Amino acid sequence: MREVMRWKYAALLALAVLATGCSSTSKKELPPAELPDFTEEVELHKEWSRSVGDGQGDTFNMLVPAIDGDTIFAADVNGEVMAINRFSGDKLWETDLDLPVSGAVGAGSGLVLVGTLKGEVVALDGATGEEKWRAKVTSEVLAPPATNGDVVVVQTQDDRVIGLEASTGAQRWIYENTPAVLTLRGTGAPIVTDSLAYAGLSTGKVIALDTQRGLPAWEQRVAVPQGRSELDRVVDIDGGLLLSGNTLYAVSYQGRVAGLDASNGRIIWQKEASSNVGLAESIGNVYLCLANGTVESVDERSASSLWSNEALARRQLSAPEVFSSYVAFGDFEGYLHLVSQVDGRFVGRTRIDSDGLRARPLVVADWLYAFGNSGELVALTIKK
């Protein structure tokens, strides 16, 4: 019964976070901020667009596409998986898994990986879309699996981290963890290198596991639960981790943003922050879309805020991504926003999908890819 109630609480909390952008004790919540006017400095050019099934569906999925080489892979909530040439928008193949996809898409080493609400991981051939294997895991998979070509690492909603053989899907190891009593609905995608797999947990910890045996190499607490109620004590690391060089970045809900030494977990710097969507990094600066709708730049050297843009309060922002000299992110009305990396001012805006833009943008060189909630996948460049 405790397990059933925990998942009920998790679902309710997810709805509360979506509706308000942050927890609040006020009786009447403020509405999302209106879009501010600004002088457009950057014009985005649509190179192509393609519909991918029903997109995110009616539940709070975070089906982020994946790019491997010249191909972008995307999946919808009903199991339609598509491979698309990322330059032309031409469809290369399409596979219908007829499964409730909730964690998508991981790609690498010739594999396309998706996770389902039924607690399955399905591996497809990246060149043909042919199913290579499927594996049963302990609970629903809400984030993309990751692979280094030798092992596939998947994090499940019950906070377990599982290593599967990349060639067959057979379980190699499992890391057991007791999840927090109350959690957000979601997990971050693991990061896998040749020797280590990194994951953020609902308890506010980051762990590094040996990819061969799943044994912990180190663990570090990024956030400490505080407050009297279980709601106040939620410190999930849901937005995913970011590895740049030997620095591993993490941000938690109602906790902190931190830079860790990827080899031993030592905290290099940290700052109070609350986000459940993740972060971006570029040349010593970290960019955050906070739970209340504030966009912030943090200097890694001093852990101080360089600038803060509060104009999009309560607009349920996506994770940010660095694009050229700008920071790109979406909102609940489907707008893609560009702000300057220098001072956070608005420089561009375009609407991708009227149903919303929840998935983080993907950027490769001069191309940005945005996947709207209704399934609209759009490739954009900056108009010269």
UniProtKB/TrEMBL annotation:
SUPFAM superfamilies documented for this protein: Quinoprotein alcohol dehydrogenase-like (SSF50998)
Subcellular location, record wording: Cell outer membrane
Domain Pyrrolo-quinoline quinone repeat: 78-309
Residues annotated as signal peptide: 1-24
GO terms under cellular component: cell outer membrane
Assembly information from the UniProt record: Part of the Bam complex.
Record protein name field: Outer membrane protein assembly factor BamB
The encoding gene: bamB
